[in-house]
Every structure is written in structure tokens, then in C-alpha cells.
Amino acid sequence: MAKFDGIFEIKGTLQGMSFYKSKDGMMIRKKGGIDKSRIKNDPAFQRTRENGTEFAHNAKMGQLIRKSVANLLSLAKDYRVSSRMSQAMSRVKNLDLDSPRGARKVWIGIVNPEAKQSLRGFDFNLNSPFNSVFRAQYTLDTATGVVSILGFNPATNLSIPQGATHASLSVAVSNVDFQLDNYGTTYSPKENFALVDGSVDLTLTPTGMPGGTGSTFFYFLIEFFQEMNGLQYPLKNNSHNVLYLMEVV
């Protein structure tokens, strides 16, 4: 696949090449391909079948994580988060050192400490990375999901986007069982405050810890608002909001 950079915008097929518009601009690719039945049955395509099976598995596992935080994802994401999460699941799957190629599983790979480390720090909105927006120290209690922030000053500890007057901080905890294809998520109340100079100690406490036998994911959400006539409105359709994966245990 290649990007088309020409003076005319072409859509459709021309001389065996397909032209189409994507979010990255005009793209071009060769029309057609190998017959599906050959890919499915020809021994020469064994590796292709194995890769396809694992690709589908990665996508499904990434979708499960996104579903587990759908309420948060509706507030903070970029348009490539689905593919980026599938890539993250591929890295976890690769750490399944027991299963044969084509049958490696995320729920086996996630047991590896290296897999958990690869997921920590995942930003769901790369337009607003956590470490570029949030400049305070925090502590996370993985037994309770509580996040404590001492001496938090919105004026100095946040990178404030133009037009924002208020912000909210909150956390969430999800238990995701990849093998059983289920999850449970709990949330903290949102701490809302004006973006002015002044320090305060914040404690973000989930309503409880989700049950289950899977892996536990800890999330941090930052939302920005603009106040007008006493009402707060999401700033620029949530494009500056932050959703960050703090920890996986």
C-alpha cells in the first residue's frame, strides 16, 4: 500500500490499481490478490494462515480491553487506538512461550512480567499523552485502586489547553479475563476543579475492586472543560482529554 500524492484526486480503479481516500490521505494499492481457497488450503501458505489466526486473536483481545473501559474511551481516544491496542496485544501474545505458532494466546503471554511491563503507560489518546499533560507525583495502591496526589496545583501540575477553565480527574479499575472473555470495571467519583493557582490533596477512590480471576488494569482519566454561563462543556469534543493505563497486575 502506498500514499498517492498527485495533482488530481482519483477514486476507484485505474489500470489495475485501486485509489481510495483514508484518514491519512489518498492511498493506492494493487487490485486483486491470491485466491482465498488457495490461502486456506495450500501448504505453501501455512505461515500466512498462522499469522491470520493470531492477528484475529490479537484484535479480539484488544476489543475486550476497549469494551472494559468503553465509558472512559468515549471521552478520550485517538482514531488509531484500535490498531494500536491490537499491536499491544500482539506483543503480549508473543510472550506465550508454550503454544505453537498460530495458537499463541494473550492469556498465556500476560502471565509474563515482561508482558505487563509492555502495557504499562499505554495512552489511549496520543494527541494528549499523560506524561505531557500531568506533571504531579501520584501513588497507586494496587490493593484498593486508590490514587493519592499530594499538593496538587492545577495551574502548575497540568498542561492546560487553550480555552479550558476546569478539569476533572478520576480513576478506574478493570479485571479482564482474556480466556473467559469477560470483564468487570469500577470507577471513582470525578474530582472537578477550576484551573487556578492553589494546592490541594486529592484522593481518587474507586467504588471497590472488581472481582474475577483475570488481570487487573488501573486507569487514569483527565477531562478538560470550558465554563460558560455557569455550565461546563467538554473542551473541543474531548480532543484534549487523557486516558492512561497506569498499571497491570
> How many strands appear in the DSSP assignment?
13
CATH C-level of the largest domain: Mainly Beta
Elements, N to C (H/E): EEEEHHHHHHHEEHEEEEEEE
Main sheet makeup: 6 strands, antiparallel
Q: What structural class is derived from the secondary structure elements?
A: alpha+beta
Helix content: 25-40%
What is the average per-residue confidence, as pLDDT, rounded to a whole number? 88
* Shape by Cα distribution: globular
Strand content: 25-35%
Which CATH architecture of the largest domain?
Sandwich
Rg calculated over all Cα atoms: 22 Å
The third-level CATH topology of the largest domain is: Immunoglobulin-like
Oligomer: single chain
* Discrete helix count: 8
Distance between the termini: 38 Å
Low-confidence stretches: none
User: What's the domain count?
Assistant: 3
